[in-house]
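Collaborator request, handled under Task 6.
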Amino acid sequence: MSDSVEIAPGELSPFEPELKAILSSLHGHLTGLNGEIFYVLRECNNANIPADVADRITKVFEAFFGTVQHDVRAEVLNLEDKLGLRPGLKPYDPDIKNPDPRVTIGFIRDWLHADFVDLDQLVKELKGNNALGYILVSETGANMLNIHGDIVDGLRRIESILSQHNR
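Structure tokens returned to the collaborator:
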């Protein structure tokens, strides 16, 4: 990453409508991830999946929920602050050390990547060992990967706007 970028209030106003739309879609995508997670948790408890397998699935998906609901959502709010999209509101995290929105984008990517690695490992564990668990987790995982792709696309669009702004 090159020099740190700090956005002054109103500095991105020409891009504000697009940025707001992107951030709104990011919030929606996070809600979509949570919906997929809840589906697996509900079905895991209702399906004929052995308790040890259900426990493993539950552990991975509950951790993923925690990441999405607490870590990633917090970083999206921080990103909105750094982009000047929450004027008049107290900063979500007033103790932010680095005002560069690209740092926050990196945090979002890293948080999600770690849980997708765990999900991938779970799919590999279930393949050939528990057909019902494998189908449930792999199909939902595919849906989640599609949502993740939309999140990454939105983050790239923000990075593109920041690049245009820094020219």
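The cover message to the collaborator said: "Helices lie at 16-46, 51-82, 101-126, 131-165. The two ends are 15 Å apart (CA to CA). Please let us know whether this matches your experimental observations."
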